[in-house]
Specification:
four-stranded parallel beta sheet, three-stranded antiparallel beta sheet, about 170 residues, single chain, Uracil-DNA Glycosylase, subunit E, alpha/beta, about 35% helix
C-alpha cells in the first residue's frame, strides 16, 4: 500500500488543492509534486509572481503567498508506478477531507489537480457529504502531471492562473 502525506496547511487558506496520490518520485523524496517534469510548482511560483525554486521550504512558502492548502484525496491505495490509471479501485482509502475543511473556515474553493482527484473525491467524499458541493466551488483543473500531454503547458497554466488569481482574500 502506498500512503499519502500529511496536508500542507496555512491557517488563512482560501483554496484547497487536492491531488489523487503522490507519485513514485514524490514518495521517494517525501515531498509533494517532486517529479522534475511535473508543472505544479512552476505554476504556483508563476501565479505567486516569485522566482521559481527547487527548495521545498520555498515551495511551501509560495503556497502561503497564494493562501493555498494542499493535500491528496487518497490516504492510501495500491498502485504500480505513478499513473492514476494504475490505482486499484478496491484499494482506495480516502483522507478525512471533511475534517480538514472544518479546520479551514476561509476555504471557499477546492481545485482538483486532474480528473482522478475529482473522481475519487466524488466517490469517497461527496457520496457521504453531498453538502460540500453546495458550500465550496469545485473546480477540476488540468493535471500538472507529465503524463497529461493532451493540453499544452500554456493552456494548462492559463487555467491554473485564472483559478488561483480569482480567489477572494
Amino acid at each position: 500500500m502506498k500512503k499519502s502525506f500529511v496536508p500542507i496547511v496555512t491557517e488563512d487558506a482560501h483554496v484547497l488543492v487536492l491531488g489523487s496520490m503522490p507519485g513514485e518520485a514524490s514518495l521517494r523524496a517525501q515531498q509533494y509534486y517532486a517529479h522534475p517534469h511535473n508543472l505544479f510548482w512552476k505554476f504556483i511560483f508563476a501565479c505567486a509572481g516569485i522566482e521559481f525554486s527547487v527548495d521545498y521550504q520555498q515551495r511551501l512558502a509560495a503556497l502561503r503567498v497564494l493562501h493555498i492548502a494542499l493535500w491528496d484525496v487518497l490516504q492510501q491505495c495500491r498502485r504500480e508506478g505513478s499513473l492514476d490509471s494504475s490505482i486499484e479501485k478496491d484499494s482506495e482509502h480516502p483522507n478525512d477531507i471533511v475534517a480538514l475543511l472544518a479546520s479551514l473556515p476561509q476555504v471557499s474553493k477546492i481545485c482538483f489537480n486532474g480528473q482522478k482527484a475529482y473522481s475519487s473525491f466524488k466517490k469517497h467524499i461527496l457520496k457521504t457529504s453531498p453538502e460540500l458541493a453546495l458550500r465550496y466551488q469545485l473546480v477540476i483543473m488540468p493535471s500538472t502531471s507529465p503524463a497529461n500531454a493532451s493540453q499544452s503547458c500554456h493552456v494548462k497554466f492559463a487555467r491554473w492562473q485564472d483559478e488561483l488569481s480569482g480567489v477572494e482574500l
